[in-house]
Amino acid sequence: MPEPSDLDAALMLRVKRGDRAAFATLVEKYKQPLFNFICRTLRDETESEDLAQNVFLQVYKSRQRYEPTAKFSTWLFTIARNLCLNEIRRRSRHPAESIEENHGENEDQPQRQYEDKKIHLPTDQVLHRELAGKIEEAINELPEMQRTAILLCRQDDLSYEQIADILSCSLSATKSLIHRGRETLKDKLKPYLKSGDWND
Prior knowledge:
By secondary structure, the protein is an all-alpha fold.
């Protein structure tokens, strides 16, 4: 059973009983973190918006079968990861289609960065944008499991245990994935950082 403090699970139980306002509350809370995670995984804004909506559709369709055996966020991001993997497999079967969809879309405009909004001094904005771009680029180059572990780790309310559940691997393997991913990122980003420390 989830912890008593898991208010999201309580909301989902209300959704199970037909409370649409509770569902709207969950959508409002998780739509941005979910979109960020999917977009960093697929690197396609339009596809990610559709997939995020599909995640919530799956949640609503599965409401009668929902049992609070884990935190709601664990369940939600597990659904998201599975749908992302399905989309990645679809692209690998139809590579020409994916190339046509993405060809030329972003050639004339800067790449949008999908990160939590933070306040920066105006004099730091250009440097921050450049660094954010390098971080996203480095994350995208990680192996799939390391990349997913790192992206999930950037979701504030997910513990290592939850990330292990989402990835369907042991806690020690999850910690190892995150450690290796961070070390790789630290090495790649050293030229852009004042120190070699990796901060979440």
